[in-house]
């Protein structure tokens, strides 16, 4: 499986994941040919909730005025467009008032071609996201857990969560989200007091083996700085950094 194929699967998976969230809670969405935009009007200052994903560069160029209207109509003051490496849309975004502000590594692996090691610790299948929310807040701050709250009590559908407990307390967990034959990995977190013990690796091993058992062909994710080396050791490939092109109008 090529890097380009994995990158396309990642974009499709993230878009579907956000659409799933929008269908369950207060996240708002705008779907246009070649792209999808998401806004959280209840928290307009959180850029992590105001995002545009696209797979058609010309469609994005044509939609820039519509995106401006969409976010302004929801009172959102800043939003970002994720741009994969090598995409030529940067100059058009710059002319429209966007500026590059940081990037996030995109990663993927072919489940059929990658040797997987079973977890050495027991992993629990969590029946709800109730415990995953405070774990992410503890690991990454309150805003990191915000996206879970609107839909944590809704039917799960393609969401599967695995976690590790110690003395009855959840100390590491993550979830996978299936789109066709690709598993997207999200919200892998370890409690600060339990770090440096390889628990994120154990959670990932469980999620990947489960995905292979469901006949998923690939796993994809956007990496944090903390998790990047973990994912590389597990066989994930770097697909390049997705650049945040940010529009601020307030």
TrEMBL record:
<dbReference type="InterPro" id="IPR016181">
    <property type="entry name" value="Acyl_CoA_acyltransferase"/>
</dbReference>
<protein>
    <submittedName>
        <fullName>Acetyltransferase, GNAT family protein</fullName>
    </submittedName>
</protein>
<keyword id="KW-0808">Transferase</keyword>
<feature type="domain" description="N-acetyltransferase">
    <location>
        <begin position="119"/>
        <end position="250"/>
    </location>
</feature>
<dbReference type="InterPro" id="IPR000182">
    <property type="entry name" value="GNAT_dom"/>
</dbReference>
<dbReference type="GO" id="GO:0016747">
    <property type="term" value="F:acyltransferase activity, transferring groups other than amino-acyl groups"/>
</dbReference>
<dbReference type="Pfam" id="PF13527">
    <property type="entry name" value="Acetyltransf_9"/>
</dbReference>
């Amino acid at each position: 499986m090529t890097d380009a194929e994995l990158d396309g699967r990642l974009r499709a998976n993230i878009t579907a994941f956000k659409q799933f969230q929008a269908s369950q809670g207060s996240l708002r969405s705008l779907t246009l040919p070649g792209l999808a935009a998401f806004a959280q009007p209840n928290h307009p200052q959180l850029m992590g909730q105001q995002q545009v994903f696209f797979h058609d560069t010309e469609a994005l160029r044509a939609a820039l005025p519509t995106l401006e209207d969409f976010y302004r109509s929801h009172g959102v003051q800043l939003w970002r467009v994720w741009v994969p490496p090598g995409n030529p849309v940067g100059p058009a975004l710059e002319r429209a008032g966007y500026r590059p502000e940081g990037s996030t590594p995109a990663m993927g692996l072919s489940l059929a071609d990658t040797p997987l090691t079973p977890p050495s610790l027991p992993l629990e299948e969590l029946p709800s996201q109730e415990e995953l929310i405070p774990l992410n807040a503890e690991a990454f701050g309150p805003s990191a857990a915000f996206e879970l709250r609107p839909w944590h009590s809704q039917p799960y559908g393609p969401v599967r969560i695995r976690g590790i407990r110690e003395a009855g307390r959840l100390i590491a967990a993550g979830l996978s989200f299936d789109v066709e034959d690709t598993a997207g990995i999200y919200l892998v977190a370890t409690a600060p007091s339990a770090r440096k013990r390889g628990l994120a690796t154990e959670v990932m091993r469980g999620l990947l083996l489960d995905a292979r058992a469901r006949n998923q062909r690939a796993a994809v994710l956007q990496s944090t700085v903390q998790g990047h080396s973990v994912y590389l050791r597990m066989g994930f490939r770097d697909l390049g950094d997705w650049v945040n092109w940010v529009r601020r109008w307030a």
